[in-house]
Design goal:
By secondary structure, the chain is mostly helical. The protein has helices at 26-58, 72-99, 102-134, 142-163, 167-181, 184-194, 214-246, 251-257. The two termini are 28 Å apart.
Length: 276
Amino acid sequence: MNRSIDTPAARPVPAPRLTWFTFAAPAHFHRLAGTLIPVFAAVAALLGLAGLWMGLFVAPTDATQGEVYRIIFIHVPAAWLSMVLYLAMAGWAALGWLLNARMAHILARAIAPTGALFTLLALWTGALWGRPTWGTWWVWDARLTSELILLLLYLGYLALVAAIDDTRRADKAGALLAVVGVVNVPVIYFSVVWWNTLHQGSSLTMGAAPRMAAAMLWAMLLLTFACWAYAFAVVLVRARAIVLEREGGTAWARALVAGATPLGEHGTPGRGNQRS
């Protein structure tokens, strides 16, 4: 009677137990991100198209500003994300600094360019909005100036981590700058309350009824969620690239680059594709 031989290669590999730290492993994060990226990209495209349609064709004309107000459907989500992404970047950088967590530093680096992009978009659309409403492209207003400082903080973080060759030293230096820069975020948010500025107050306030038509509100929210989904997608794409760059010497990364399966069926390093 033939009997199968129970070898280590033939035994099924147990699935990893999911914990808070499962995806702190670069290999597991890389696989998860690869699954989530197309989902977030599709959500961003669908919500973006729906939000633009509502903002451009459904939302009514503003009684005071006319058609020019429609730029808020891009400006406001970009401004919101510029602040929230900075807090996320600083939070991951601080977590990586305190716990020496590699993936936290990687996420901080992946967030920074997207945060800088949304900050630049908020400043640019604000200038386009300010020209017809204020009569000038730029004023040294508290809100505008603090938002410009936010852009400089993003660029400073990117320049600092790129200027230091040692990855660990670069991560720690970038984390210090990011954490110190957090003080600027509440200045941006409360600047229209603390100082007499040209910039109008918040479009939405917690605990208060919206001061805009329902179609305007829905267009703004749809585009905000679209920007969120876009941010998740591009940050995950960038994080996967940084993971491969840093983990290039590991077996799973070499297998992936060579075209083999990086993770087995149960989330463990695979053996690669073999030709018969």
